[in-house]
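Internal ticket - ligand job 244, zinc ion:
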Amino acid sequence: MDKKIAVLGDIHANLDALDVVLADAKEQGATDWICVGDVVGYNACPNECCAKIRELGAVTVCGNHDHYCAFDESLEDFHPLAAAVVAWTRRQLSTENREWLRSLPYQKVVRGLTVVHATLDQPEHWGYVFESVEAEPSFTYQRTQLCFHGHTHVPAVFEQHGFGAVGRLPAEDFQLVLGRKYFVNTGSVGQPRDSDSRASYILYEPGSRTIRFRRLDYDVSAAQQRVLAAGLPEHLARRLAAGR
Ligand code: ZN
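stdout (structure tokens):
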């Protein structure tokens, strides 16, 4: 059977969205699992989401929220809303899940692919890649043809040609071209920010070198109810419906 890799990330403790994505990936025949990080933060089910990703044995890298929630660093410089969520998540996390989050690497090369949460040049500085120019430093450090990342919550494809020019392709299904490198953002499972509230992830088939973007409706109001019931900021519930 041909391998199919489900690549997902920025789950952000949204169990309702994660369940729909996992069910779809299984139905689509996913054989392998990669997670680009930010399993926790923002939404109400951090332990449940950690458990699901661990159960799958997904190759997982550390996101900024995973890091802040798993380590007891000061939150002084944080936006008050972000600090409130990190503090809440720290209180919720089981010892086991905290240890697991602490063990995650910033980047990983696996099965000929690179996986990172933010950028390859300074993975621990959590830079955002929205434009081609912001993708350039990562290509310098990318030793494989394909790298998956997350962090912006916006699905995206950046492509580097043989002579180094970097461009942005539409976030649509495509086939890798030999001699070019790709830095591909999976979009977000649990808090999309491209004005589309549907959960986002990627199915990658190494055999045919094809990438498919998947967008799925899930029960947004159920996720919102959990956020409110947990006493988390109302804004976090509202933004799920807006996809912002
Ligand atoms: Zn994130």
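Auto-summary: Helices lie at 15-27, 46-56, 64-70, 80-92, 95-102, 132-141, 220-229, 234-242. The mean pLDDT is 96.
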